[in-house]
Amino acid sequence: MKRATLPLFLLALAACEAPTAAPDPGEFVLHRLNRTEYNHTVRDLFGTDLRPADDFPADDFGFGYDHVSAVLSLSPLHIELYERAADQLLAEAFAPAVTYPLDLVAEAEDGLQSQASVGFAFGSGFWNLNTEGSITATLEVPVAGRWRAGARAFAHLAGDEDAKMALLVDGRLAGRFTVGSVAGEAQRYSVEAELTEGPHELEVVFLNDYNAPATGADRNLLVDHLFLEGPLGVDAPEGSRRDRVQPCDPDELGARTCAALSLHTFAERAWRRPVTQAELEALLAIYDMVIDGGDGFDFALQQGLKVVLMSPHFVFRVERDADPTSTEPHPLSAFELAARLSYFLWSSTPDDALLDAARRDELGTDEEILGQVRRMLADPRSDALIDNFAGQWLYIRAVNDAAPDGATWPDFDAELRASLMGEMSRFFATFLREDRSMVELVTARETFLDARLADHYGMDGFSAPDEGEDPFVRVAFSGSRRGGVLTQGGLLTATSYPLRTSPTRRGKWVMEQLLCSAPPPPPPGVEGLVEIDEGAPAETVREQLEAHITDETCASCHVRMDAFGFTMEHFDPVGVWRETDRGLPIDATAEIDGVAVDGALEMTAVLGESRSLTRCMGQQLYTYALARGPQTSDYPILNDIHSQFEDGGFRLPALIEAIALSPSFRSRRGGQVLVESEADAEGEAR
What we know:
The protein is of the alpha+beta class. Helices cover about 40% and strands about 15% of the residues. It is built from 25 helices and 22 strands. Strands 2, 4, 5, 7, 10, 12 and 13 form a 7-stranded antiparallel sheet that branches. A 5-stranded antiparallel sheet has the order 3-6-11-8-9, with no helix packed on it. A two-stranded antiparallel sheet has the order 1-14. The longest helix has 20 residues.
């Protein structure tokens, strides 16, 4: 099969000369942590499960990614939410250690905690149900699991039987008890129940009142409190996270000395660089001011730590130029390079090992950088490349936004959506974790299926794994119609309309994401992509689309773009194979770069032979790593990266290493002042 031709842009790139001794690293913009980076950073700083950035404003996209520096603006709302996030994180860090089981109590005599249908407060802390009736309380279960539910009570005895008590949990009878004790022997009566996280109602019912006025005999039920105890048989989470922000005991070291050590240690980790003495003194001034105001050590230290978290040095990835207007390249500092590596590979802050390497100035050679890259790729945090790089490049995240018509595909539900995304994520993970060529991204004849997806694809004989194991199984497509990412249901769904396929959207995805040759925007007066009339009879989507593309200006782009999409027409809007469209046979033939093909697999075979594919893979990851779009100065560097990628067998780790060693990743420069006056600033804002 003949090799596909290169787009003109990539031919020009390939023809560029090798990088000079000091290549231009391009112009960088101060980088604000996006929502994912913020959540990952505080996770690794505090060991927290909180995700405060989920409440931040949505991040804008540039060049296909949501962490491109130039589009990450800062608003007053961000400042407000940064402060709230800092308060939440520090409150959790300074909270006492949790021990299980928890004992959640609602005092019966406290009207704010419980409500009774009869009775009155009695003695020191009891509620007297002096006739048949009940008392109710609601308690919040923080952790789902098995809990002990009940009440502490005793009885005033009278008549010929003990007091009878029923316990209801969420309105259902949970147990009956005989209460025969006296005041000094009040005890807990309880049952065990599986409870979900959230509020649960407990109700104690007095069942057998007895009252003899002639003798004064009176049987009553006296309730001390209602309670939940649990979760049972579960280990508590790790103790207090305070040691992550306070590595010393103020009673042993002295309060101010411990505060100084805590602020210095935390600020270095949070700011991803050494802290100057002047910066430490400024933080200690906050601590001193709070102490002088009469507050204690904990609150004063939290205020200093809060300043660290509100600082631009935390919220932004700050890189310095000795002369911000100079275009002369200079190497990044060891700490700046450490941060670039960690946010590239982990979408998070450098760990102690990386900061220690920077502190020892051990990131200056290729061998030292490669050692860190390989260590970091072996760390589970490198899954961020799956979630964030592949999640956006391959449209895995976009599956969440797809909206197939519910009446046409009633079985398309949240479970199927999760299965489609699971297939795509696990498939990409093999390129990160296994020694395989990235060309197989489009040519592989295998995938990962769970039972739901196997049924969706019509795969007979699928054998689901045992319960408790990963539900996805690696499946070979021997003799199948599928192979590679372009035939995976998630991508096919994400590039379709709710009621029909879109050869144009699918073809545009191939050109933009896999070939880096995005078609130009429609000319003036053309309203973008043509929407097909769903009521038109006896025409396939392909026939209607071809009939609509009559303008020569439009056709110049659509001919190539739609050709890719036409080869995928055997897959319906949710990725299921079909032979017909609207009752008519499907035509999946096309010409791809001079090669006649029939169907998606023949198209991907041609695509797999194209150097445009592997060059674009390099450009996509380069854009992601640097958080900026490619610039003119990048072309020779990209050319060199592709050569190293090819020498490495087109393996993803080889591409990652080539980018990490590139001069644009390891150096920076200043640039022109973009806004030089208030008038310029106003114009820029418009």
